[in-house]
């Protein structure tokens, strides 16, 4: 009996520890990349893969993947876990294309263009009858200057809080990442396990999934940042 109750104690402890993160391992068939993946109650999935040495000590690139119901007007990822003064990744479908927009909010109104985060779109970016899927390397999503200008880098060894937002209202001009859009219908937070998202395959995943511009152009219309 003693053994049983200690085992029960251990099990509940491990449940508590693993409950700190909302993300789990997921292998994406389109790219072969192993992501840490979290899906929110609205059915939007946020995925992340990091280089093996990612930490808070220096800036690093990340591979991101967002999968969302095609009927949503836009979905967003707030890298600092709040709306203002951190990189925002906003994506939407435009017919058979996926459009991304790099933004930063400097108040509780439409976020402005944010040029400090650069995206290289990868294979695994497409639209089907139900969902759109965006996959990219981002340089400048995991590091930014905070409100006071102090550099901040997400601790790639630990669990990190992110925020999401989405709207069912289409953006003003879906063909361009510079489009205006209106306020979210919902926002929320989740915890992502960055330590478990790290892999020494990071560089080979990026190299293997860089599509030719011609291929990407068929699937993607981007704003002024290009790819
Ligand atoms: C036209 C665009 C947008 C408008 C007008 C807008 C407006 C607002 C307003 C007024 C609030 C405060 C709500 C309250 O405190 O009750 C809020 C909160 C929030 N917004 Fe937005 N928002 C926009 C776009 C975005 C985007 C693109 C994201 C993320 C990618 C985002 C993430 C959040 C989050 C996480 C909160 C919760 C409070 C916080 O973190 O400060 N918003 N927004």
From TrEMBL:
Keyword Signal annotated: yes
CDD domains: CDH_like_cytochrome
Signal peptide region: 1-19
Domain Cellobiose dehydrogenase-like cytochrome: residue ranges: 26-203
Origin: domain of life: Eukaryota
Keyword terms, alphabetized: Signal
SUPFAM superfamilies named in the record: CBD9-like
Name of the protein in question: Cellobiose dehydrogenase-like cytochrome domain-containing protein
Annotated source species: Xylaria hypoxylon
Upper classification of the organism: Eukaryota, Fungi, Dikarya, Ascomycota, Pezizomycotina
